[in-house]
Structures are given as C-alpha cells and as structure tokens.
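Q: Got a minute? One more chain.
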Amino acid sequence: MIDADLLLRIYAAGCFPMWDEANAETGIFRPDPRAIIEFDGLHVPRRLAKRMRAAPFRITTNEAFEEVLDACHEDRDDGCWCSPDMEIAYLELHERGFAHSIEAWRDDRLVGGLYGVQLGAAFMAESKFSRPGAGGTDASKIVLVNTVRSLAAAGFSLFDVQFRNDHIDRFGVVEIDAEDYEQRLERALATPRDWPLAFDAGAARVGIDDQG
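A: Always. Here it is, folded:
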C-alpha cells in the first residue's frame, strides 16, 4: 500500500509509482533516459499559440484537485495506472501543499486540466485530460503551456514529464540520463519555491517565446 509519506520519498528519490492493473500491484519506476521540458526550450505550435491568444478558457490552480485527479484516470485507453490507495495519497499530498492541479474552465464547466507533485523547485507532472465534447478542445495543451510558463516565471528549475509520448513531444520534450535528472532534482529539492497563486496570461508569457 502506498501512502502520502511513501509517495514523497519515491518522488524525492527520482522515481514515480504506477499501478499495474493487470497484475494488481504498484510498480516503482526510474526511467533512463528521463523526459523533461526545459523551461527555456518550450515549443508552442503556431496554431495553439493563436488559439491561446483568444483566451478560450479560464485557467485556475488548485480549485478542483479531486475533480482533475478523477478526470485524468477515467476512461483511459491505456488502462488505469492509479490505484485507489494512490488516489487517497495524492489527495493527502494536495491537502499538505505538495500536489497541485491546474484547471481549464469554459462557462464554469471543467473541460481540462493536469496535476502533479511539487518538491522545492521541481514539478513532476503526472497526468492531464481534456473534454472536447464539452468545449474543451486543446484544453490540456493550453493548461500544460500555462503551467510551464508560470512555473518558469516563479523560479522553478525542473519540469518532469517522465516519458516521451506523442501527446507532449510537440512541446519540446527532451531526454536526459537518470544521473543528470537526479542531480537536477537534488538541486531543486534544496531550492524552496512558492506555488503560484494564479496562472493568468501575464504571468504565463514571462521569459518564453512562442515558436513555430
């Protein structure tokens, strides 16, 4: 069973948990190489940048953590990788200020978001979701870009996305070896950072340019 304190130790060690639904057990992963987004290397496709300028969503943080957590795990094609005890642990981490959500709203309806774990100046993004049928087309992408930009402006130094995949590669994901990752994580753990209170458009544009 994984509880909140164990989750913190797992992330601080440079690993992350994943529920294996087929074998009914939780695995602890330390991928090598590790996928991250460099804060100064964020790539925003032109079409998405144009859509963001129209401000189609209201972006908030920590207003609906449990809803985001549930939405990220429902109806996944690759199965559920978060067990009930892990969900309880993430909820406790949120109550303790270590786990955060970023939400996209349209007409007061939650249409996209992501959540992850913060340790010092590091953010480990866990999962994201969109609800295109509810007007949330591109919502998770816009939330991701806003999150990277806002954390860059807040002085964060590490944005971990675990593995490369087709959904996030377009944003400039790079791979580094596990030793490099753990050195960066160690520095980030020793660098306290406050979580941004708002993810508004002004904060989201600091320091990083849109690219083609």
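A: The mean pLDDT is 91.
Q: Perfect, thanks.
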